[in-house]
Each structure stands twice: as C-alpha cells, then as structure tokens.
Amino acid sequence: MLSYRYELTPDDNGTFLVTFPDIPEAVAVGEDKESAAIEALDGLLCALDGYFEDRRAIPLPSTEQGSDTVTLPALETAKVLLLNEMIAQGVKKAEMARRLDVHMPQIDRLLDLRHNTKIDFLEKAAEKLGKHLSISFA
After folding, report:
1. Residues 63, 103: one domain?
2. 56 and 24 within one domain
3. Which GO terms describe its molecular function (predicted)?
4. Residue 135 belongs to some domain of the structure
5. CATH code at position 15
6. Same domain for 65 and 83?
7. How does pLDDT run across 17-28, given as a tens digit for each residue?
C-alpha cells in the first residue's frame, strides 16, 4: 500500500496544519496532533480526487522517511496505481471501457476513489493493461 509522509506545522490559533511533501495540494487541519493525524487521510484523499478528476498521474510516495505517515487503504492504493498505469500507457476512459466491455459509467466508478469497487473488477482492469494485481499480508 502507498504511505505518504506528512508534516505537522503549529498554527497561530493552536491548531496543526497537515501538509504532504509529495502531494502539495493535500492539506488538513487538526485541533491537536492526534486529530491532525486522523484528518490527514481525508485531506490526502480530497487532493487525490482532484488528480482523478483531471486525469493526472499521482506522484508516488518518496522514499524519504518520516515519523508521520498516512497509508492509503488497499482499494484506494489499487485505484491510484491503475490510474497511473492508464496514463502511462495513454489509455483513455473510452478505451478502457472497450477493453473491459462495459459502459462508461462503470469506468467512472472504477476511477472514483469514493466508490467501493469490487476487487475482481480492478484485477480485470489491471489485466487489460498487461499488469496483474498483487495482494499480500505483511
């Protein structure tokens, strides 16, 4: 899964600002460090939604280590990697719909971070890009 490092910056009003070096559009605010950590995932997902809407490649996490990270859930990680692969291969939504033999609304849901896509559909989409979905316990 993808784990993004974030930085906490104390604000003048006693809150903490959450920013992500790898995803500059991602921000969140928390009343304290604990709530900032909770809000970090939502801030990251909101920013990633913008990448999906714009069909832009999503920067992968840097290898730089930090104490504060947020890990995307498995489904969202798979969708980020799928979007990046589609962009890398130049595969548009219409082409993916054709390859999967589905209607466009199904592709819209496939590329929606907030939609609970079935894992077998993601696996099939990866196969249509010449890739395979790999899941493991660590």
Report:
1. no
2. yes
3. DNA binding
4. no
5. 3.30.160.250
6. no
7. 999 999 999 999
Which contacts of 57-61 are long-range, i.e. CB under 8 A and separated by 24 or more positions? 57/83, 57/84, 57/87, 57/88, 58/23, 58/83, 58/84, 59/22, 59/23, 60/2, 60/22, 60/84, 61/2, 61/3, 61/4, 61/5, 61/22
What's the confidence (pLDDT) of residue 12? 85
* First CA to last CA distance, the chain: 10
Shared domain check, 78 and 60: no
Looking at the structure, tell me whether residues 81 and 67 fall in a common domain.
no
Per-residue pLDDT reduced to its tens digit, 65-93: 777 999 999 999 999 999 999 999 999 99
Q: Give the whole-angstrom CA distance, residue 37 versus residue 117.
A: 26
Domain membership of residue 32 (yes or no) is: yes
Report the pLDDT value the prediction gives residue 88, as an integer from 0 to 100: 97
Number of domains comprising the chain: 2
The reply to whether 134 falls in a domain is no
Task: Record the pTM.
Answer: 0.90
How many CB atoms sit inside 10 A of residue 66's CB?
Answer: 12
Cα–Cα distance for residue pair 77/71, rounded to 1 Å: 9
The answer to whether 107 touches 122, Cβ cutoff 8 Å, is no
